[in-house]
């Protein structure tokens, strides 16, 4: 291939031709049948209908004496009878007159009209809705939920002890009763000894006297804790005072004290 400047120009893109589509061999037959008047006037009737003259207008009850003529059909039309032909073949019987006994009310039938009147008369009158006008422009709100009307003071349980407090008091009383029963049962089984009031007082006095002695010793400790002996002495006195205070609180906090033999 010879070198030329024309070879540098862009060439248009060649689009390949599309392949031929499938064509049915019965295409011409279908087109011919579609264009032919196979079912002419089947739904809409003829295109042009002869219009009667103004002198020959339709008069009252004239259509009753007319004889129905079926529509013209093509050679390939359907021979089945349509809905309109079925209606025109035979007329229905006329409705019975008012004088007929069929529509007369039976003597034992229920008179619903009178019953409804009596029911409406016995119904209570509808109460007017209570409203509150709070602005001069006529804005209204419901009065009961507004909080401006006394509601709770008129209730039956107003001022009574709440149910949950009553239940809580019953639960506390039941717990005390169960504890007393448990102590009584343990006393019966293990023969616990109950400390009397005199013994309890003497025990408290002894503990308090011992606490006073140790507290006086604690107050006499030097301020400077420069040796291990002084530090250990101070820690021992603090522990002893704490134990005595716990014992005193235990005796004063319980009314009945039982001691096992």
- Based on Cα principal axes, name the global outline: elongated
Order of helices and strands: HHHEEHEHHE
Low-confidence stretches: none
Largest sheet report: 2 strands, antiparallel
| Terminal residue distance | 131 Å
Output the strand order for the largest sheet: 1-2
Percent of residues in beta strands: under 5%
What is the subunit organization of this protein?
Answer: single chain
**Structural class of the secondary structure composition?**
mainly alpha
Helix content: 25-40%
Roughly how many Å is the radius of gyration?
Answer: 59 Å
Number of strands: 4
Mean residue pLDDT? 81
Number of helices, where a helix is a run of at least 4 consecutive DSSP H or I residues: 6
Topology of this structure?
Blueprint: H1 27-35, H2 83-89, H3 112-122, E1 131-133, E2 140-142, H4 163-190, E3 193-194, H5 197-219, H6 228-253, E4 258-259
Antiparallel strand pairs: 1-2, 3-4
Helix pairs in contact: 5-6
Domain Enkurin: 167-259
Keywords: Cell projection, Cytoplasm, Cytoskeleton
Main location: other
Describe this structure in words.
- By secondary structure, the protein is mainly alpha-helical.
- Helix content is 40%, strand content 4%.
- Among the domains are: 140-191; 193-260.
- The chain contains six helices and four strands.
- The protein is elongated.
